Predict the 3D structure of the following.
Amino acid sequence: MAPHEHPPVIVGLNLGLALIASSNAPLLLLDKNLVIIAASNSFCRAFQVDSAIVEGCRLSELGGGEWNKPQLESMLHATAAGYTKIEGYEIFLKVQGRADKCLVLDAHKLNYSTEDEVRLVLSVTDITEARIAEQIREDLVREKEILLQELHHRVANSLQIIAGVLMQNARKVQSDESRIHLVDAHQRVMSVAALQKQLAASGKGNVELRPYFAALCQSIGASMIRDHDQLTLEVNADDSVTTADTSVSLGLIVTELVINALKHAFSPKQGGKILVDYHSLGANWTLCVSDNGAGMPSAPTARPGLGTTIVQALARQLGATVSVGDTSPGTKVSVIHTYVPVLVGQVAEQADHAV
């Protein structure tokens, strides 16, 4: 070694000191006893410590003692011994008279260090603003959920009031035809109220259809079936899950078909069974509502009723078709969604034919 040459360790240490001092990031260079050898100017500015007294100060004594954290000190000693390194360690820094800071720490042992001259680099990232923004988002989501629940309660109360008014008017009117229309409107409002209740209970996000249909049918049956031993309403569904929007349309379809079966499939003293069945395979699914009642009329009416019109409109909205069949005894209404994938080559071929 030439007389004026310095050992590699000394050269590396001097280079490390220069890098620490000039860094734009808050950095500390520590020895094995966690004494500060150097601190970047950005560290001193960020944490309002005097750069003149930082060097030679223990980390735990820095500032007003806010860096005195036994767990951090233990982890830094383990890093100095080569057992581990600190990555993404989060702490809260509480300083008297200043706002608290949320910090992420990273520390590693420098490779050029000898056993006698262990050096650690500790980097500090201030994520206080990010955490505040995250907390604001969480508070907004929580507030939105509370407002949504309040909206659900208000809608449910409004539907109950409307249903009550309809039933009162149905009792007062003299015309049988008007009474039938008012009772029918009452049943629809009650079914929508039941649907809204189930959706509110399911919360946000996707909806499991089996418990959803079961709770919906239980609510409809409770309001429209007088003798549950004589007339039963059952659900047979797989473990399908769908979006909240799709579940609304499916729930309305089930409601209309079940009400229709309860009104027309059975005579007053006749017993029977209504079955709601839903099964899917990928994007293909089938929803069926069947009964073992009187079956389809031999002379169908010239125009479909309101319930039929609603079911057909909802099915079109879902991209599905409606099929009605006589099951002898009874009737089966199927809403079928079939997904047919179109290959890229087929799309190009169809475009060529179109031209």
About this structure: The longest helix spans residues 128-172. The mean pLDDT is 81. Residues 135-204 form one domain. Residues 253 and 311 are 5 Å apart (CA to CA).
